[in-house]
Each structure stands twice: as structure tokens, then as C-alpha cells.
Amino acid sequence: KNQVEQSPQSLIILEGKNCTLQCNYTVSPFSNLRWYKQDTGRGPVSLTIMTFSENTKSNGRYTATLDADTKQSSLHITASQLSDSASYICVVGPASNDYKLSFGAGTTVTVRA
Amino acid sequence: DAGITQSPRHKVTETGTPVTLRCHQTENHRYMYWYRQDPGHGLRLIHYSYGVKDTDKGEVSDGYSVSRSKTEDFLLTLESATSSQTSVYFCAISWDGGTGELFFGEGSRLTVL
User: Which secondary-structure segment (H or E) carries B20?
Assistant: First the structure.
């Protein structure tokens, strides 16, 4: 069973609008939680990395939040642009073996003009 | 962009043939990984390396072998390709196997007929 579940599986938004992606995980204990952006046909690129003690981290129009108590994270995209169309992947790093990250299946975001 | 080159980028082969994918880095990072990405699944770790000649299995290592004779090169070999190994393969590197950022290559799309 996947230890990282993302929702929704996909969404479509209009350019300029905001959206929020969800990530629920069961990995415990964990050392860090990451969000990656993957453009079609490309490799994933890191957006944010948060340790278990951080609540929020921003990267431009991307803001990630983390609630370690409820084991939930979210990625908020502000004022979306066409270039935000991509898959967004939530990744959790376990404290016991940091080599073996747990990846969510991703949320596909499509931004329409 | 991190200096990671995967080759070949696309390959079509037949069941039972051997296949080798190459990952080359120019960043001198200690840790290298091979992942596969399939629709509906998160990225899954095949094998990883924590130094020259030091490798270990990931969660989906059956049917795959790896070698790392130099810091910059990490080879993934399918001894006898099967249709279930049709996938997109990603190489990744990090300087720190723990909380270090993970940099991905552009991927190698393998089709086994």
C-alpha cells in the first residue's frame, strides 16, 4: 500500500486562479517532506523541502504547508500561469532510512487560458 | 540544471534481450539512484549507490542489476528484458543521501515488445 496519497488525481484551473493540492502520508517517523514539479517528458524538479519541524515553505508562487500531527501537507499555487501545467509529486523521506523515499503518484494540473 | 545525462533517451527492444541504461553526472555527487515511473504509481526505487562499487537494492530490484565503477557513471542493466519492464527510467543524484536535494535526469523511455 502506498504510504503517500495525493489528491485530487488531476485538476483543471483557469489562468490567474489559485489552487491547492493535498498530500496525506503514513510514513512514520519521517525526516522531511518534499514537493516536486514534473513537466511532461521531463524529470522531476524540486520545489520545496521541509523538515518535520517546519510548518511552511515558499518558492515564488508555490507555498507548501506541513502538519506533522495529522500527517498532511498541501501545496498552494497562487495566480497560476500556463507554465504551471505539470504533475506535482509529494515525497516523504523516512527517518530510519533516508535513501528510500516514498513517492506519491502525483496530481496533474492543467492551466487553461 | 544539474549535470545529469541519461542514455539512451528512448529505446525499443524485444523480450529476452539485454538492455543497459547509462547515467552520467558531472556534479561529483556521492549518491546515485535508479527509479522507474509507471502510470498510477509513484516513482519506485530500483537500486541506489552510495559510492564507487557500493550499491544496494531498492523496492523493485528483481530483474535489474547495477554497476558503478566510477563516481560519474551508474549503469542499470536488464539482463533479459520483459514486457513488465516497459517504463520510464529516471536516474537521480544527491550529495547527501539523507536530507539532501535530489536532482533527476530527463528519463529514459524503454519499450519491451
Answer: strand B19-25
